[in-house]
């Protein structure tokens, strides 16, 4: 388990019916910072503490990192868990090359040294259709985004429960929580005609 | 390969979606010994999770195959796409059967048009059943789309559907399987009816290739898939069949045939070509609640005009004004309101950005997500030009599986021609006019930069037709040059339909059964097609 010391303890979640098989990889601190900085570029959030270098801090609500990006990225279910450490190293190297080419005023030794705007530019380049390794960078972005917008590391009911999950993108999106563990909506619609039907609709309601 | 240990069946059906389950039922009911091999697991409705967690039904029964320029979403379970689908079941309009594409000749066989298919559509409508829905049964999102269309001078129709709205709780979890059994998947009709007639269905059996035996029978070679980590194989085996019904879906059927080519001999040129994504493209609108209230008079009864993207059951309303047979080909399309859950349904949505950079990630995207309940997803179904081609088959299945479940990389290459791109642009402009120009919100298409175009309606990769050069199947669904192999799934549909395809796939599958019986009879197996309903 690669639980970041800065993030809240893992919530008690129900076991999924088929738990992913396999072990999570062990990441170095530097790799964790790089991956968190990448995730924070994809869905930016607030800093966890004043010295938080991974999070650029361009927003004041939790972003992908607080919502569990590292948990998702290292989950054996993804199939990329063994590669994310290497991707983190590569990201730091790319950032240095990128900064050198642009002669940035401040020294850049790793991706997290870039400001949000530059981080965003570099992520845009890495995920551009012309980038040979686009698919891999996109997958890292995808799983980081999912930590925020679908929380695949948690039961969805838990992700929506503030008592269980303090930071939740699904809650920020306004995803309605379940009632007694289930989703059901009594009233589903406006209940009245809202347009004329197309002329020639047949008896089954089909186009002709 | 006639060792005593090899099991023998009259018919082996590969895949258990619409194309597989329907023939399996009729052939078993007619007295054939039928085996269905399905690569995915079998779940009961008690096992459908309302959760997006890895390992829940959302990833167990679903499949996402990324290609080069086109990604395909589908089912991966007993029941196939019917377990994950939205159950919108319109029939294809008349003009769809007259399409010519860029080839300049009719694509469908002369034996099939809307009129000749209607009796088969009728049968499917009774079997599932499919019902004409009223405005009372339309979700808030469908209602909002109808009201927007009406404001723009357009018509809009509630979609015929295989959802029993008396049982439906509008939870919108139907992509993970419908726990209420309100959605009529094949697990509620054709599959149990096939089993009641002695058909055997084996889950987690992925067919890899076919070989031909000296007597003209086929041996079907499969591997046994691990129940959690689908990348793992836990065994292999083979079964013999007098006749094979191939129905692994349009993203998998041609791959099985490609892999079988060294054993079976040359495949028709159209195997693995002419793939169509049914012309799909999604736009996401972020609606302006006050405009919906003030201009359209929408009111949920609690002060909210809309904010109800999450409530409902997928697509329920479409505008069909551009499904006009007087319009030229590539200018006809439908626009349906749609729902996709977060995750698959959010990543490709684009925000407008101040720096002109990509809108699918970053601060503006986060802001767009914060208005998620005010989203309206618009699903364009245009006429594409069958541009997809499959590359050399991967070592197994139809994709190199990347994740334990869900995600794989396939060999499909798709480069939309100018005809298709112009059709999408026309539909995008239409959506913009109806929503943005009318002041109901902002709208942006999903990006195609990340996974290419995408489809939940793969079609035509092994298609029917009269022209042997451009179709893989004759009008009986038999594979040209390979007697005894029938393809009855969405791969057989020759071209984009401008509507959701399952009803057409199902009607074609119904129609194919008599032809399969004829071939069985020729091979000395008498199977009576009784035209029964799966009750
Ligand atoms: C999210 C979603 C929503 C949809 N909503 C609608 C809708 O509202 N209306 C509509 O008309 N259509 C809808 N569709 C499309 C619909 O599901 C398909 O058009 C339909 O299922 C196609 O039927 P088929 O028999 O061709 O293939 P499928 O139903 O996909 O069946 C193919 C089966 O073969 C199995 N298989 C694949 N490879 C192998 C192998 N090698 N060995 C053994 N088995 C294999 C698959 O696991 C699958 O179960 C939707 C699809 C998706 C993904």
UniProtKB/TrEMBL annotation, chain A:
<protein>
    <recommendedName>
        <fullName>Gluconate 2-dehydrogenase subunit 3-like protein</fullName>
    </recommendedName>
</protein>
<dbReference type="InterPro" id="IPR046029">
    <property type="entry name" value="DUF5987"/>
</dbReference>
<dbReference type="Pfam" id="PF19449">
    <property type="entry name" value="DUF5987"/>
</dbReference>
<feature type="region of interest" description="Disordered">
    <location>
        <begin position="1"/>
        <end position="31"/>
    </location>
</feature>
UniProtKB/TrEMBL annotation, chain B:
<dbReference type="InterPro" id="IPR000172">
    <property type="entry name" value="GMC_OxRdtase_N"/>
</dbReference>
<dbReference type="GO" id="GO:0016995">
    <property type="term" value="F:cholesterol oxidase activity"/>
</dbReference>
<keyword id="KW-0560">Oxidoreductase</keyword>
<keyword id="KW-1207">Sterol metabolism</keyword>
<dbReference type="Pfam" id="PF13450">
    <property type="entry name" value="NAD_binding_8"/>
</dbReference>
<keyword id="KW-0153">Cholesterol metabolism</keyword>
<feature type="domain" description="Glucose-methanol-choline oxidoreductase C-terminal">
    <location>
        <begin position="454"/>
        <end position="509"/>
    </location>
</feature>
<keyword id="KW-0274">FAD</keyword>
<dbReference type="GO" id="GO:0004769">
    <property type="term" value="F:steroid Delta-isomerase activity"/>
</dbReference>
<dbReference type="InterPro" id="IPR036188">
    <property type="entry name" value="FAD/NAD-bd_sf"/>
</dbReference>
<keyword id="KW-0413">Isomerase</keyword>
<keyword id="KW-0443">Lipid metabolism</keyword>
<comment type="similarity">
    <text>Belongs to the GMC oxidoreductase family.</text>
</comment>
<dbReference type="Pfam" id="PF05199">
    <property type="entry name" value="GMC_oxred_C"/>
</dbReference>
<dbReference type="GO" id="GO:0008203">
    <property type="term" value="P:cholesterol metabolic process"/>
</dbReference>
<keyword id="KW-0285">Flavoprotein</keyword>
<comment type="pathway">
    <text>Steroid metabolism; cholesterol degradation.</text>
</comment>
<dbReference type="GO" id="GO:0050660">
    <property type="term" value="F:flavin adenine dinucleotide binding"/>
</dbReference>
<protein>
    <recommendedName>
        <fullName>Cholesterol oxidase</fullName>
        <ecNumber>1.1.3.6</ecNumber>
        <ecNumber>5.3.3.1</ecNumber>
    </recommendedName>
</protein>
<dbReference type="Pfam" id="PF00732">
    <property type="entry name" value="GMC_oxred_N"/>
</dbReference>
<dbReference type="InterPro" id="IPR007867">
    <property type="entry name" value="GMC_OxRtase_C"/>
</dbReference>
<dbReference type="InterPro" id="IPR052542">
    <property type="entry name" value="Cholesterol_Oxidase"/>
</dbReference>
